[in-house]
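Q: I'm writing up a methods section and want to include an example of the input and output format. Could you take the sequence below and give the corresponding predicted C-alpha cells, formatted cleanly so I can copy it straight into the document?
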Amino acid sequence: MKKILGILFYLAASCILSGQNISIIEKKLDRSFQRIQYWYDARNKDSFTYDSLYAANRKFEKLLQYYTSSNPQTLRHDFKSLKKNGLSINSSEDGKFRIYSWNTETGGTMRFYRSVFQYESGKKVQSEVLKSNMEDDAEAMYSQINDVISQNKKYYLAQSTAVYSSALFHHTIKVFSIENGKLNSNAKLIKTSSGIKNELGYELDFTATSNRENPISIELFNTLDIQYDAKKKIISIPLIRDDSRITDKKIRYHQFKGKYFEKL
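A: Here is the clean output for your methods example:
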C-alpha cells in the first residue's frame, strides 16, 4: 500500500513540477520578448538604441530556440501571454510541427521578421532557425500550416507574408517535411511547367501603374491571400499579370492522384 501511495505521490509531484516548469519557461520567454517592444519604444526617442533592439531580438531568438529544442511540452503549449504580446504561433494539424514568428521592430514600412521552426523528432523535440542575416534579410511572417499526405508521407504547407512596404507584399506557400529526424525545408511537392518546386509565391504591388489606374476594391483586396481547401486539396492564388495588374481570377493547383500539386 505504501509503495502504491509513493508511486501516486511521485506521479502527482511530477505533473505539478512539469506544469510549473512550462509556466516558468513561458514567463522567461515573455519577459525576453517584451524587451523587444521596450527597445523599439526607446528607439523612437533615441536613435542610438538600435544595437539594443537587435540584441533583444537575438536574445529572445536564442532563448526560444533553446527551450523549444529541450522541452517537449513547448510543442503543444498555448503560450497565451506571448501570443497576446504579438508572437505568432502556428501549429500543424498533427501537432508535430510548429512555427514561431515575430516582427523584430527593426524596420519601418518594410517589416523584418524572424522565425523559429520546431518539430517532433522521435520522442524529442528540435528547433532551428533558417540561415539568414537578421539585419539584411526581411524574411516573412508565417500564418498557417496545413498537413498533406503524398504517397504515405507527411508534408506541411506553410503560408507566409513578407511586407516590403505599405504597398508591396509577397505571399508564399512553402513545403516542409520531417525526414530522418530532421526538418527538410526544401521538400518538393508542387509541379509547375519548370519542374517540381518547393514553394509558390506572388507579389502584390499596389504602386504599379496598372493597379493605380485600376484601383483594387475592398472586396478583391480581402481575397488576395493564398487559399487552401484542405478537403479538396486545392491551393488557390490570385492571377497577377506581367504588368503587375492584380486580377480577380485565380490559379489553382490540385493534388492529383495523391502525389504532386498540379495546375488545373
